[in-house]
Amino acid sequence: MFNEFWVATGNKGKLTEYKMLLEKEFPDMKIHHQGELPTFSPRPEDGKTFEDNARIKARTLKAVKQGVWVLGEDSGLEVEGMNNLPGIHSARYAGPKASDSENVAKLLKMMALKPLKNRNARFYCSTVVFTPSGEEWVVTGEMKGTIALKPAGLHGFGYDPVFIPEGQTQTLAELGAGYKNQHSHRANALRALIEKMKAL
Question: Model pTM greater than 0.85?
Fold first, then answer.
């Protein structure tokens, strides 16, 4: 039942996180991603919510991979003082092909234009999974924290260099993979998924 799991992502950082968490729980599971399919072309992520976009990814991959576990995920950063921006635009905040550092730079610039006293933020993850029988599951996860004044740390990806988790004084990029795999929004959503899988 748990021998083949496909993840609808081209993001190597996300894939590494999924592999570390899933292989620990299901050692015999083979984890694949959309980049292994020679003719796969992702659909535009034009949903209005994280869940919409996660479902688009999962359904597109499910159309070519049936009878296996298929996961689509969309996640991003919401900053309270910026009306929860960048939100679903997190990966493309500084432009369609923006690098992580460009997105971080734009975020800090926007927060400095109108100096924000409220730097509270959260990473949010919505995950849509299709079981081998085609049933749809939705799980979510979040990690709360604040936005640092400047980037710090060399680990992780995305906004990790400026996100300080609740109760910590260092950014995710300083805390490293061990901390992130225990506490991240994606890890929290995945743990909820694993509980559902084990309950079958």
Answer: yes
